[in-house]
Amino acid sequence: MTKPADGCIIDLDGTLYVGDREVPGAATAVATLQSAGIPVCFATNTTRRPRSALVTRLGEMGFEISAEELHTAPVAAARWLEQQGSRRVSLLLPEATFEDFAGFERDDREPDHVVAGDLAEAWSFEVLNTAFRALTHGARLVAIQKNRSWDAGQGLQLDAGPFVAALEYATGQQAIVVGKPSPAFFETAAAALGVAPRRIVVVGDSPVNDVQGGHDAGCLGVAVRTGTFREEDLAALERPPDAVLDSIADLPDWLGVRG
């Protein structure tokens, strides 16, 4: 039988690992795809770690993944800002991720763009109010992602989305989303793979960010029942996933790839 896809875009958090633990069988599944010569890139909305730190963390969990194989939302955001000619940015991001924006001047008072990611416990009235003032003085709001929640390994907790929504409501601006589920995010990843989008499968634990985002970019979409996955989220999709797997460990079999 013809395999359903020739390339893969695979989510990280909630798909390959949850918290600091590998999803059982995930490293073996990735190694199987790599040894079979399947073009793979790994796409993530996380803003808590720069790409270099993600490579180290993945290696500690048994994944052999290079920085070039990682398609991160902060890197996508930096490229988008460069295309817009932005020079000054306010970064609502963990400080470790600032290295992905090394080419920009940081300015919290009069930036060209306010870039919002996940600050976790560092969100505060002062942070939101400073961003609010910059936005009301002409800055544009860029959301690296608008996830509602994520699973840090101890249960669901708030992600960046609720705080981005607060800034949207307060300013009347609609944030420009540069990470998942933006079709442009997946189109860029597909171009890096050199595979036609219709022959690429996007795999992840978020039906909206991964499956719907992949579908909107012309790719296949497969959901995995790990991380933040909830069966009721499938009802929000414009069309059902091309498959729902128990975990990433089942992906090689679905693709018809043997280790």
Basic shape: globular
Strand order of the largest sheet: 5-4-1-13-14-15
How many strands, which pairing sense, and closed or not: the largest β-sheet? 6 strands, parallel
Low-confidence stretches: none
Give the amount of beta strand, in percent: 15-25%
β-strand number: 15
Overall pLDDT level: 93
Helix content: 25-40%
Q: What is the SS-derived class?
A: alpha/beta
> How many helix segments?
8
- Distance from first to last alpha carbon: 17 Å
Order of helices and strands: EEEHEHEHEEEHEEEHEHEHEEH
Gyration radius (Cα, Å) is: 18 Å
Give structural notes.
This protein is an alpha/beta fold and about 260 residues long. About 30% of the residues lie in helices and about 20% in strands. The chain contains eight helices and 15 strands. The chain has helices at about 25-35, 50-60, 75-85, 125-135, 160-170, 185-195, 205-215, 250-255; strands spanning about 5-10, 15-20, 20, 40-45, 70, 90, 105, 115, 140-145, 150, 155-160, 175, 200-205, 220-225, 245. The strands form four sheets. It has a six-stranded parallel sheet. A five-stranded parallel sheet has the order 7-6-8-9-12, covered by helices on one side. Helix 4 (about 125-135) packs across helix 5 (about 160-170). It is globular. The mean pLDDT is about 95.
Descriptive tags:
single chain, 259 residues, alpha/beta, 6-stranded parallel sheet, 5-stranded parallel sheet, 8 helices, 15 strands
Gist of the model:
31% of the residues lie in helices and 20% in strands.
Strand and helix map with partners:
Elements: E1 7-11, E2 17-18, E3 21-22, H1 26-35, E4 40-44, H2 51-60, E5 70-72, H3 73-84, E6 88-92, E7 105-106, E8 113-116, H4 125-136, E9 140-143, E10 149-151, E11 156-158, H5 161-171, E12 176-177, H6 183-193, E13 200-204, H7 207-216, E14 220-224, E15 243-245, H8 251-255
Parallel strand pairs: 1-4, 1-13, 4-5, 6-7, 6-8, 8-9, 9-12, 13-14, 14-15
Antiparallel strand pairs: 2-3, 10-11
